[in-house]
Amino acid sequence: MASTASEVSQQVQSNNNRPIFKSVKALTESPELTSLPPSYTYTTNSDDEIVADPDEDDPIPIIDYSLLVTGTPDQRAMTIHDLGKACEEWGFFMLINHFVSKTIMEKMVDEVFAFFNLREEEKQEYAGKDVMDPVRYGTSSNVSMDKVLFWRDFLKIVVHPEFHSPDKPPGFRETSAEYCRRTWKVGKELLKGISESLGLEANYIEDTMNLDSGWQMIAANMYPPCPQPELAMGIPPHSDHGLLNLLLQNGVSGLQVLHNGKWINVGSTSNCQLVFVSDHLEVVSNGKYKSVLHRAVVSNKATRMSLAVVIAPSLDTVVEPAKEFLDNQRNPAAYVGMKHRDYMQLQKSNRLNGKSVLDRVKI
Ligand SMILES: O=C(O)CCC(=O)C(=O)O
Ligand SMILES: [Fe+2]
User: Fe2OG dioxygenase domain location, by residue (predicted)?
Assistant: First the structure.
């Protein structure tokens, strides 16, 4: 007899102090699954929600990285101007000609799939409990806090200042080391351009955020096909912590960013990196650049994979608005300073819910 949806739904048990959970991937492989288990039913205010494709008159900004790093002084100045505009108006842009080769991006996607295709027991060795665990395999977002489960499995790995990797699959470590090195460089160059776009010295963010010992994390997200995608959510609306997030996806769409009150379908992209302004950049710029709300919806057709690279200050950096912008009367600080480490702890004690963590440091 087929089990009920709730029988095959999420379970969190304790085994040798390690949480053992049912991943979405394992759930989709069980023959009993014909409908969405109730614990995954997500309700949106779909009546007042607008979802749209990008508008020709207001397209998603595209930034040409090669012009930033190898362009003429005029091209670089123009790109910095465009970068500032993209950060201010969208908090999001597509990065082209970024010198992270197609080969390494494809290899990275393959290694991430190879990890998720390991046997469940092998993956569960990395089932972490704490946001500070350097290698953490999990499901949903924060299972102990989530009221509704999200249709997503994830693998999060801290890769800088100390590099970590799961031991399996065999090629993961090497490919990820290379991918992380290259994306870190891209992130740092973008932050130089962004500093300049704010009227600061090129090295301002790099120096004040102590990026030499900066914190880089990769988050691989896996969204298997969902029996009732309209009732589920892959990852709910949120902004990211850190300065920037560079995202790669496997050619399956699902990402939406909030722009002027509408959820814009980003669509499938190949060869480009999607760049998000994250919470700490909003703080440093004293709110001039806003971290972008985004979410991932799911489909019943294909497995979607995305890989986020978070570029963040060192854990001991107190992130606060750049003093250069502040003027007590006309432009007072809009955020209190907080150590990156404490910000992460705050995030851990919250559900993934819009910009609720950032709101805690807003004055
Ligand atoms: O899968 C996506 O497109 C979004 C992932 C994401 O927002 C994240 O990892 O923070
Ligand atoms: Fe995100």
Answer: 214-313
